[in-house]
Inverse folding.
């Protein structure tokens, strides 16, 4: 059982997947910062100063100044702003993944076209040509 597990871990696909997950986690942090620190302030300019992070509805009688304060008080809260930020994060990640896949496909297509465009080795004499040469040589 242990040897099977070692073989499974040693496969290239598992290692590639692990690297992908680690890079994906780092990329998520970058996208979260991009949305929270750059995109939301720009959106706030166009929407009259609305900050999505501060957009929430508390479902209790207590007054909360922020989502964190409501959660700390144990009050139920609809954090609509956080949800909108998650949607924006998803759209950015989906767009970047789309662009990466599109680029990889373009590179693969260019490589396959280059292989197809490579000239084939010159064709040797056909079987008929060889037989005709043998016939001519036998006649002499």
């Amino acid at each position: 059982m242990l040897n099977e597990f070692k073989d499974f871990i040693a496969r290239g696909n598992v290692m590639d997947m692990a690297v992908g997950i680690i890079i994906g986690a780092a990329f998520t942090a970058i996208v979260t910062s991009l949305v929270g620190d750059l995109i939301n302030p720009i959106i706030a300019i166009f929407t009259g100063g609305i900050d999505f992070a501060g957009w929430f509805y508390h479902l209790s009688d207590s007054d909360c100044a922020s989502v964190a304060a409501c959660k700390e008080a144990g009050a139920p809260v609809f954090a609509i702003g956080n949800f909108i930020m998650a949607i924006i994060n998803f759209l950015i990640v989906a767009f970047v993944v789309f662009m990466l896949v599109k680029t990889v496909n373009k590179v693969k297509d260019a490589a396959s076209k280059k292989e197809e465009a490579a000239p084939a080795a010159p064709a040797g004499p056909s079987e008929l040509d060889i037989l005709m040469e043998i016939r001519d040589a036998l006649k002499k």
Notes: Helices lie at 2-10, 12-46, 67-73, 80-117, 127-139. The first helix runs from residue 2 to 10. The first strand starts at residue 57 and ends at 58. The chain has a mean pLDDT of 79.
